[in-house]
């Protein structure tokens, strides 16, 4: 794979609002509630086309990843650091199969995943990010969407949308020396294999009690997250969706 055009390195390469997704029983996910992205950098410009800044930022990276690239957010932004898997770091395991990384994340770190989900803002917009906005972010977003009632095929499709942005993500990581020298776009850590996200979906939906059973078993705050889902999911008439 080669870079087809020069990406804009001055802002996020892999950012999107999760509004507009169909949910079971009718209705759509609301805009300006859940945003996913790759990592912000201190010299970035604000993204275009969405309210900014978010009310809460959930940073899934290990603190050692930040270094001089830590961002100072405005004082009214709530920033929480909830590392979910050091094994998903693009600067350490570029050649490791994603299925192996996701397996470890799901089978041994469920409590870390729900700790991040427990931080979602029940009033304002939540931004979830890691380094590339693909693996740690992809797992957290997939679980949130499943809990909200988004169908499995749409969850998988959203995961694969990062393929369209990965060249820009790669360039942002490379120019800021956040990825090992010699790493190419063909590195396993930069791919989005279907079997990796299917593993996540299968573990969550196949649990006793389904997605919500998995969430509770792993330490999720069910009452709080149900409030968040009530904000995120809207009926076709624009009202909060009912269970």
TrEMBL record:
SUPFAM superfamilies named in the record: (Phosphotyrosine protein) phosphatases II
InterPro entries: Prot-tyrosine_phosphatase-like, Tyr/Ser_Pase_IphP-type, Tyr_Pase_AS, Tyr_Pase_dom
Protein name per Swiss-Prot or TrEMBL: Protein tyrosine phosphatase
Domain Tyrosine specific protein phosphatases: 111-174
Transmembrane domains' residue ranges: none
GO molecular function: phosphoprotein phosphatase activity
The organism's place on the tree of life at top rank: Bacteria
């Amino acid at each position: 794979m080669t870079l087809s055009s020069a990406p804009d390195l001055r802002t996020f390469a892999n950012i999107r609002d999760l509004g507009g997704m169909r949910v079971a029983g009718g209705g759509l996910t609301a805009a300006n509630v859940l945003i996913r992205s790759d990592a912000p950098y201190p010299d970035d410009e604000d993204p275009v086309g969405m309210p900014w800044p978010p009310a809460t930022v959930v940073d899934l990276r290990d603190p050692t990843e930040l270094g001089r690239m830590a961002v100072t957010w405005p004082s009214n932004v709530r920033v929480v650091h909830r590392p979910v898997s050091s094994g998903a770091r693009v600067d350490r395991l570029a050649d490791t199969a994603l299925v192996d990384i996701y397996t470890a994340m799901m089978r041994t770190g469920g409590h870390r995943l729900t700790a991040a989900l427990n931080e979602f803002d029940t009033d304002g917009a939540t931004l979830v990010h890691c380094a590339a906005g693909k693996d740690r972010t992809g797992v957290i977003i997939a679980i949130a969407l499943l809990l909200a009632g988004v169908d499995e095929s749409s969850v998988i499709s959203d995961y694969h949308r990062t393929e369209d942005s990965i060249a820009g993500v790669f360039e942002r990581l490379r120019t800021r020396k956040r990825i090992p020298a010699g790493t190419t776009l063909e590195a396993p850590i930069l791919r989005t294999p279907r079997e990796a996200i299917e593993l996540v979906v299968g573990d969550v939906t196949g649990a006793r009690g389904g997605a919500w059973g998995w969430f509770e078993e792993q330490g999720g705050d069910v009452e709080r997250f149900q409030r968040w889902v009530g904000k995120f999911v809207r009926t076709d008439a624009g009202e909060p969706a009912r269970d």
